[in-house]
Amino acid sequence: MSKGNITGWKDVFSFTLKQNAKNKVLRVTTLILLIIAVAAVPVIMAFGESDDSTKDAFTVDVIYVADTTGSLMPGIQEIFGTDDRFANTTFLEANDADKIVDQLKNESSSDKKEMLMKIEYTEGAYTLTFTYGENTGLSRLTLEDIGDYINENFRKVIVSSYDLTPEAMELINKPVISRVENVSSLQKAEDTSGELTQREYNVSITFIMICIFLLAFGGEAIASSIVTEKSSKVIELLMTSIKPMAIVIGKVFAALVVILTQFTVVILGFLGSSIITNSIKSGEFVGFRIPSEISDMFTDILGTTEGIWYKLIIILVLIALGFVFFGVIAALAGATISKMDELAEGVKIYSMILVISAYICMAILMAGNIGSGAGGIVNAVLVIPFTSIFLLPGYLLLGKASVGTALIAILIQAAAIILLFKFVSNVYEYLIYHKGSPVKIKQIISISKQNSKTKKKGADRDE
Q1: Is 189 a residue whose pLDDT tops 50?
Q2: Contacts made by residues 340-344, CB under 8 angstroms, sequence distance 24+
């Protein structure tokens, strides 16, 4: 892309941004998102304070406790041994975790419902690993419920086990990580990094839903803007002084700013709600502090929040690049349409690409959730421009993907955007002046080839 091809994009950007600011639908959508953000904090806190004492006791007979710290068994007996949720459960200390694992492997369905809880303290966090056997009558869901409950109350165990010295208080504030294992999976040699717990699945599927919403909303806004101006001859006036590529860049960046503005409004609403809710709860103004119910929820899901900020920055870059990539495709789809009543038909290709990409990622998640993983397919899907925006943010946040993988995906995404811009610039001018039925994919490819040959002949003549 030469500098001349993008001259004037700022004018298009400014014009499109002003048009979006006047859009009533956009204003209403932003208001709804703000209301949801403001209401989220008190709702989460209300659920976080719900009483678990009325729930049924867990259906597990024996929990073997392998405490590698050597200090927490008394606290476990005091806190959970007298808990109504464990009324039918006996906690037994296990000095040899491997022996218990072998015992769980060999248990038959007629034996007691037994499981192992291994407590480790590594890398600044407590890790609770809950292990069960296939024939013990316990399910993964049951152990996840037990793990959730123990995790939520584990700090009580620490308080009970240590004197309240400054060192002990520091230990209390350390994050607690829990995970569930089936003893059969311990015998497998293959990489199981593609496998997901229910929580990891929920986090990843939430990211996909958010991305689908952003891309569908933003893509339709870009296509609709181009069709509106094309049908009113505004786009033709713009093209008398501005190159087609500058129009695409201006409109895509304007839509990106709108999305980022909505995101900022949501964050500010969340922060403001946190300050107000905490102040009401404590009876005095306390400033901004993430409620413990929310911070505990994130720690519970992610294991630890250490180093999360640089991951969030990378995630924002990934989402922004993904939006630009799909935004250019949406601009191309909008240029193939001549009338507003053909908008749904014209953006069908864009919607199809969006849905197929998202469904591929959902299939990967479903495979991981049932424990089958997806091997090398996952690594490919994480870096492919069409799918990386859906799957990689969640995987990076959960530690299922490395920062190196994210950087590779960013480079591939940037290269794909440059190539896509070049392709679009080759056909955009013809599409803008096109009148009639929506242009099909084969026609677009044919136009691109024809224009490439024309430019090559022109360059040969100049030489």
Answers
A1: no
A2: 340/224, 340/227, 340/228, 340/231, 342/227, 342/437, 342/438, 343/220, 343/223, 343/224, 343/227
